[in-house]
Amino acid sequence: MNDTTRGKFITLEGIDGAGKSSHVAWIVDFLRARGKTIVSTREPGGTPLGEKLRESLLSEAMHAETETLLMFAARREHIAQRIYPALERGDWVVCDRFSDASHAYQGGGKMLDRRRLSVLEQWVHGEGSSQPCEPDLTLLFDVPCEVARQRIALAGRHLDRFEQEEAQFHDRVRHAYLDRAQKFPGRFRVLDGEASLDAVRAQLEKILVDFGA
Ligand SMILES: Nc1ncnc2c1ncn2[C@@H]1O[C@H](COP(=O)(O)OP(=O)(O)OP(=O)(O)O)[C@@H](O)[C@H]1O
Ligand SMILES: [Mg+2]
Questions:
Q1: Contacts of 22 (CB under 8 A, 6+ apart)
Q2: Those residues with Cβ within 8 angstroms of residue 100's Cβ, 6 or more apart along the chain or in another chain
Q3: Cα(193) to centroid of ligand 1, in Å?
Q4: What global pTM score does this model have?
Q5: Is the CB of 20 under 6 A from ligand 1?
Q6: Nearest residue CA, atom 25 of ligand 1?
Q7: Of all protein residues, whose CA lies closest to atom 10 belonging to ligand 1?
Q8: Is the CB of 200 under 6 A from ligand 1?
Q9: What digits encode the pLDDT tens for the residues 168-203?
Q10: S-S: 127 plus which of 78, 116, 122, 133, CB 3.0-4.6 Å?
Q11: What percent of the chain has pLDDT over 70?
Q12: CB of 153 closer than 6 A to ligand 1?
């Protein structure tokens, strides 16, 4: 893949209710208005097989390692079928959650061995190949767990298997995300997700322009 024509890979991360999905359409419109061709997708999911796995992952009880392996299996398919070909065409990819979510939920939340997660990540991202599939920009929507919980309650929607976890679980997930942001400052941008929707958009606009969108 030629680096000058390769598209950019943008991921959105944050705990449940942080505001990721609320901003996806705006980000896509903003980038399209600036002449980019966009593939908008999400995890788990993004392919027909991935969406089937998503249904199980969000509703069926399973061992934490089974959950992790299925997440990465869905991701392998997603990269192979959609993300990598899009980037290769020069399209930009906007993805609602990616591997940082596995580090945050399965690593932080479920306290799985981080080294195992890294092995799976390197395998599935194609590390060691000429062009591994790594995000170029990761937007972390950071909010206190209590705020996120209240938003979800206000929206009154059905809670999936992860959203039903206890408060301490979400706190561990939030802090695992913040640890990732510290570890990879080059690609992470942390947004104050507690701000109003308009204020979050203003933060996003500045980040995207600085990024070269
Ligand atoms: N900045 C904000 N101020 C007020 N309410 C917000 C803000 N951002 C999102 N919300 C509301 O919070 C709720 C959760 O937001 P959203 O669905 O975007 O979160 P999410 O990060 O995609 O969560 P999940 O991981 O569960 O999909 C929605 O009802 C949304 O309208
Ligand atoms: Mg969402």
A1: 197
A2: 11, 13, 135, 138, 140, 177, 180
A3: 9
A4: 0.96
A5: yes
A6: 16
A7: 19
A8: yes
A9: 999 999 999 999 999 999 999 999 999 999 999 999
A10: 122
A11: 99
A12: no
How far apart, in Å, are the Cα atoms of 211 and each of 93, 131, 205?
Answer: 14, 20, 10
Tell me how far the alpha carbon of residue 20 lies from the centroid of ligand 2, in angstroms. 5
pLDDT at res. 14: 98
Rounded CA-CA distance 208/213 in Å is: 6
The number of beta carbons lying within 10 Å of the beta carbon of residue 210 is 10
Closest atom of ligand 1 to CA, residue 97: 25
Out of 21, 23, 146, 201, give the residue to mutate to test ligand 1, the one with the largest number of ligand atoms within 8 Å of its CB: 21
Show the low-confidence residues of the chain (pLDDT under 50): none
- pLDDT at residue 2, as a whole number: 55
Looking at the chain, how many residues does it have?
213
In whole angstroms, give the CA distance from residue 113 to residue 118. 9
Buried b (16+ CB within 10 A) or exposed e, 6-30: bbbbbbbbbbbbbbbeebbeebbeb
Determine the topology of domain 9-211 in CATH.
Rossmann fold (3.40.50)
Which listed ligand is nearest to 155 at the C-alpha? 1
Q: What are the phi and psi torsion angles at 91 (to 5°)?
A: -75, 155
Between helices 114-125 and 64-78, what is the axis angle to 10°? 20
Q: Compute, in angstroms, the gap from residue 107 CA to the centroid of ligand 1.
A: 23
